[in-house]
Amino acid sequence: MPDTPENINNAKNVISVTGLFKSFSGNAVLRGINLEVRKGENVVVLGRSGSGKSVLIKIIAGLLKQDAGKVILLDKQLDQLSSKELQSLRLRIGFSFQSSALYDGMTVRENLEFPLVRSQRKLTRKQVDTAVEQVLNDVGLIQTIHQMPAELSGGQKKRIGIARTLILNPEIMLYDEPTGGIDPITCVEINHLINKVQKQYNTSSIIITHDLTCAKMTGNRVAMLVDGEISRQGSFEDVFNTEDMKIRGFYNYNFITNP
Asked: Which residue blocks in the chain are alpha helix, DSSP H?
């Protein structure tokens, strides 16, 4: 677990999820989720594939609607916002997609410019260039500025995807499987980057993952999702200090050691 940043405000919630339910074709995926994220905090939502993690983060991002319950982001209840208000709120939230979601026909520079110019039309060319170069330096990839996505490795694409969200200086970061599909060494680099973003950009984050190393390295707090419910919350050690076989089994499968 990372050191707890001094700027975590335990008295201020930036995300509050209460009594969240979601079903698809009669199949209950989320069964009354309650979750809070404090200002400046990294919260990992951990669980096996199919446990409802991605559905949860898409509801929090406003990409899916819940069947019941409420989601409050930055003091605004999502289901009470107009389309214009929701769009304005999304500018304060960075969503790092599992696939990185880069535009194949654009260079790295153009991928980063696109959200910035679309949201802030009065910026000068120099201001845009400065912002692009700053976030690329922050993720350690300034050398890729003129490359196309097809020329990047999987880990580089992840970093550029994070850079594209950072260029709008979000208050909240939502990471969907940030270490999915990349090698172990690159996973560690991405985990370090998540912690760097938290401290340098003063973000509050939800990190969706089934990767225990990611959870242990990045989470100030861990919430374990089992069968559509948060079964345990706390530090990484607290969550796995249990005899619950569903949780122990998940841990043992991920950290199998050979005799």
From this structure: 53-60, 83-90, 108-119, 125-138, 154-166, 184-200, 212-218, 236-240, 245-254
Give the number of C-alpha atoms closer than 13 A to the C-alpha of residue 213, restricted to the C-beta side: 16
Provide the residue-wise pLDDT of the chain in tens; the chain has 259 residues. 665 556 687 778 999 999 999 999 989 999 999 999 999 999 999 988 878 898 999 999 998 999 999 999 999 999 999 999 999 999 999 998 877 789 999 999 999 999 999 888 789 999 999 999 999 999 999 999 999 999 999 999 999 999 999 999 999 999 999 998 889 999 999 999 999 999 999 999 999 998 999 999 999 999 999 989 999 999 999 999 988 888 888 888 766 544 3
Angle ∠(140,145,150) on CA atoms, nearest 5? 100
